[in-house]
């Protein structure tokens, strides 16, 4: 029985990962799952491809329209985020440099009289005993008293830090060029960061924008459905959009995470897209770096995560980092999550009073 449950859980995780690679296409993810499961013997008499599909419907992870087409539900989207977060935490526990082992920081604030419902990750010593018992008695009565998870309440603490983050995802064509999938790890990190903030730092904010020829903000819940297009890399537009978003936030700390694999190769000029995919075009670079300087003046830090080692990209990012006094990382695709999470937690440790 335990082996069967473990196998089903593994199939769920594989399916969620395939959903990221297929831009949230349930039908295509199921087709790929069936091929992989057949090849490696993951299905058996008890669990077939058809039964797995029916199980997804029964659990409310996918829905089916009148034409038989399957799509993700809110519950299914959250499952993808949770698995992405687990995968990145697993990689972090596998061993990282220095103090990078744990991404969780203490609150540090004084305990307040106000209480709220318990959430995963809350410290046991913050449990409000009286409120918890009241909830349990109100639900079950005195004759059949029992504590359940939904009964627990914890004391609020002073919010000493707050952080507004804009994650900029490069969706230019190079993110899938030469047969190397760079967009899937980037999306996986974005999903995991969203789940981390929603579950452990609910007072923080995360905004997501994608950029190619232009930049556009997307609802965070649409991350699984992001796809790469036949676009150039307009980093200037991405930085300008991120500033507009962050300046509207009331958080004391503001930061930009720039995930890219290419140098800036396009800018908007007098209503037209000026583009040059060859080398480092100084006009494009200088206009982009102007936005970097403005970010520094506004106290907005930029952490750049390069998922390629192109010489032109490295040269540009070195100039960007020097001007912004930010951080830059070259990461292998497997390390992207660890570095991004460490940087997020480090940047939100700054205390404000």
Descriptive notes:
With 353 residues, this protein is α/β, with parallel strands linked by helices. The protein has three domains: 2-72; 111-157, no CATH class; 163-347, Rossmann fold (3-Layer(aba) Sandwich). The chain is 42% helix and 18% strand. It has helices spanning 2-21, 26-40, 49-58, 74-93, 129-140, 183-200, 235-247, 282-297, 311-324, 336-347; strands at residues 62-64, 70-72, 111-117, 153-157, 163-170, 205-211, 215-218, 253-260, 266-269, 272-275, 300-306, 327-330. The strands form four sheets. The chain has a six-stranded mixed sheet, with helices on both faces. α6 links the parallel β5 (163-170) and β6. The longest helix has 20 residues, at 2-21. It starts with a helix and ends in a 6-residue tail after the last helix. Residues 94-108 have low confidence and may be disordered.
Q: What does the largest sheet look like?
A: 6 strands, mixed
Relative helix content: 40-55%
Tell me the count of domains. Answer: 3
How many distinct helices? 10
CATH topology of the largest domain: Rossmann fold
Coarse shape: globular
Oligomer: single chain
Q: How are strands sequenced across the largest beta sheet?
A: 7-6-5-8-11-12
Distance between the termini: 53 Å
- The overall strand count is 12
Low-pLDDT sequence parts: 94-108
Report the β-strand fraction as a percent range.
Answer: 15-25%
CATH class of the largest domain: Alpha Beta
Order of helices and strands: HHHEEHEHEEHEEHEEEHEHEH
Please compute the radius of gyration using only Cα atoms.
23 Å
| Assigned CATH architecture of the largest domain | 3-Layer(aba) Sandwich
The named CATH superfamily of the largest domain: von Willebrand factor, type A domain
